[in-house]
Structures are given as structure tokens and as C-alpha cells.
Amino acid sequence: MAHHLLVYGAFGWCAEILWTALCALITGVRGDLGDDVGPQKLSREQRLRLLGHTYLWMFPLYGVGGLAFERIHEAIRAWPWYGRGALWTVLIFAVEYVAGAALCRLTGRCPWDYSYSRYHLHGLIRFDYVPVWFAFGLALERVHDAIAAM
């Protein structure tokens, strides 16, 4: 079980670092880094650095979330891909919202702040990330299958 937690935590961290670096490259904006400055416009040189980021809090969140989703994956394995992706999207939003609210209470601030986005809910989730979480949930199934095969 500890092995699974480590794999999910590392997978989530790597995916988040890749995502934030590519978003900065494509959009020319670096999202909120928790410094109360909010999104920052990047120069061409800054974009090409491919600077990605994550937070230490995310490792246990991805690790425990991955473990919790293993049983769900087994239960819905026979569902069509679009049904599984839709369920993962809803569940990931729920985890992101609850974890963000808990971190706000614990530390005084959520590590991520989506309040700059037009499509946010309390700054904790972004509804325009539906395709991202849909794909991420389906990718997590592949990670689960690979871990189970070890």
C-alpha cells in the first residue's frame, strides 16, 4: 500500500509540474503561486524556461486520492470510458474542493487559488478544468493497472 501511495504521489506531482509549465508556455501567464500577486504575465524568455511548480501538500493529496480511487476503479471498470471519465471529473472536483477548504482552515490559505478564473467556485475549483480532470482520471486508471501488475 505504501508503494501505491508513493507512485500516485509522484505521478500527481510530475503531472502538475508538467501541466503548469506547459500552461505558462502556451498562455504566457503563470498562475497564482501563493504570493498574493496572482497570475503574472511572462516574457518570451520566461515562457521558454518551462518553469513548472507544485506544493508539498499535493504529494499526500495525490497519494491518498489515488489509493481511494483504486476501489472505485475496480467497481466501474466495465463502464464505458465516457462514463468513467465523467465520474472521475466529479470525484476529483469533490476532493479538490474539500482538500482546498481543509487546507484553508489549517494553514489560512489554499495552496492554489483559482479566484482569478472566470469559472471558479470559491477559488478552490475551476469548471473549465473539466476536460483536464476527465483525462487525468482516465490516465490514473492506467497508473492503477500498471501498479497492480507489479
TrEMBL record:
Keywords: Membrane, Transmembrane, Transmembrane helix. The keyword Transmembrane applies. It is a multi-pass membrane protein. It is found in: Membrane. Its main location: membrane. It comes from the Bacteria. The chain crosses the membrane at residues 6-29, 50-69, 81-99. Coiled coil: none annotated. PANTHER family: TRANSMEMBRANE PROTEIN 229 FAMILY MEMBER, TRANSMEMBRANE PROTEIN 229A. This is Putative ABC-transporter type IV. It comes from Nannocystis exedens.
